[in-house]
Amino acid sequence: MGNRGGRGAARERGTRHGRGRRRGAARRRRRRTVPAGLAAAAVVVALGAAVAHCEDRDPPAGDDVPVAAGDMLEGNTGDSGPQRGSRADDTPESSPPASPSSPSTNPPASASASASATETDIPATGPGTFTAARADGSAVGTGSRVRRYKVLVEDGIDIPASEAAAEVSAVLADRRGWTRDGVNSFRLVGSGSYDFVVKIATPGTTDRICGAAGLLTRGEVNCSVGTDVVVNLKRWVLGSPQFDGPIGEYRALIVNHEVGHRIGRGHEGCPGPGRPAPAMMQQIKGLDGCVANAWPYGRDGTYLGGPAVP
Questions:
Q1: DSSP string, the chain
Q2: Model confidence over 18-37: pLDDT tens digits?
Q3: How far apart, in whole angstroms, are the C-alpha atoms of residue 160 and residue 163?
Q4: Are residues 274 and 147 in the same domain?
Q5: pLDDT for 23
Q6: What are the backbone dihedrals phi and psi of residue 274, each rounded to the nearest 5 degrees, phi first?
Q7: How many CB atoms lie within 10 A of CB 248?
Q8: 299: which residues sit within 8 A by CB, 6+ positions away?
Q9: Which residues of the chain have pLDDT under 70?
C-alpha cells in the first residue's frame, strides 16, 4: 500500500508540474503575440492615415469640369409639341432608325482620328452627363451683341471638351462666320451666365434631349432646342454623305447652321445650280444643284444665302 501511495503521489506531482509547464508556455506565447498584434494595428492606422491624406487633397487642375446633364437643359419644357425656337436640323426625309445595337466599348480615339472611324465606332448612347470645357476666351467679332456660350461633351466620348471647345471657337471666330454680319460677337465661357450651350452627344442622348421638346432626330441628326445646340456625335465624327469636303469643314457647317438658329436665322434653299449651298440649308437632305459649303459668308464678305424655306 505504501508503494502504491508513493507512486500515486508522484503521478499527482508530475501532473501538477505538467500543467504548470503548459500554463507557462501559453503565457510565453501570449507575450510573443502581443507585439505582433500591435504592429499590425499600427500598420492599419498608418495606411488609413495615408488614404485620408490622399482623399483630402484637392484634385489636380484640368481643362474640364463635370456637369450633370439635367443642369444644362434650360429651355426644355417637357411639352409634347416642339418648343418655340426648337428645330431638328438637317433631318433626312426618311432617316433610318437609330441602331439597336448596344453602345460600343471602343468609341473614336479622338476627334482627329474620326477620318478612319465608321458607324460601328460610334457609341449608340451614353450616360447623359456632360463635361464642360473650363475655358474663357475673348470676344470675337465687332458686333455689339456678345453671345456667351459653353461647350460640353457627353461623358464616355473620347473627345476632350477642351479640344471640342477650341474647334467650335475657331469656327465662330472665322471671318466667314456669323461675326461678319457686324451685329453678333461670340465669347467662350467656362462658368457664369451664357446665351447658349454647344453639346456633343451620342445619338441616344441627342434623341432624349431633342425628344423632350417634341423633336424627332432618330439617332441621326442634330437639333437646336431652348438654349441647347445639340450636336449628334455621329454627324460630328462621320460627317454627311452629301457634303464633299473634309470633316473639319462639315463640323463648321454644323456649328454655323445651329448657331444660325440661335441668332434668329431660318432655313434657306439652294439659290441656283453651281452656287454655294447656304449654311442655313439642310444640306444633308440634298444640295439641289448647289455646291457643298460650310460658311454663311464668302471670303469677300458676301452673304451666301438663298430663298427662305418654311
A1: -HHHHHHHHHHHHHHHHHHHHHHHHHHHHHHHHHHHHHHHHHHHHHHHHHHHHHHHSPPPP-SEEEE-GGGG-TT----SSPPTT-EEET--TTPPPPP-SPPPSS--S-GGGGGG--GGGS-S---S-EEEE------BSS-SEEEEEEEEEETT-SS-HHHHHHHHHHHHHSTTSGGGGSSEEEEE-SSS--SEEEEEE-HHHHHHHHHTTT---TTT-EEEETTEEEEEHHHHHH--TT--S-HHHHHHHHHHHHHHHHTT---B---STTSBPPTTS-GGG--TTPBP---SB-TTS-B----B--
A2: 555 555 554 544 444 444 44
A3: 5
A4: yes
A5: 53
A6: 80, -5
A7: 16
A8: 175, 176
A9: 1-117
Instruction: Assess whether 20 and 109 both reside in one domain.
Output: no
The answer on 110 and 21 residing in a single domain is no
Q: What pLDDT, in 10s, does the model give residues 63-119?
A: 333 333 332 222 222 233 344 445 555 433 333 333 333 333 333 333 444 445 677
- If asked whether residues 137 and 44 sit together in one domain, one would say no
Domain tally, the chain: 2
Judge if 236 and 121 occupy the same domain. yes
Same domain for 30 and 156, yes or no, is no
> pTM score, two decimals?
0.65
The answer as to whether 308 is a domain residue is no
- Residue 53: give the domain boundaries: 1-57
42 and 76 together in one domain: no
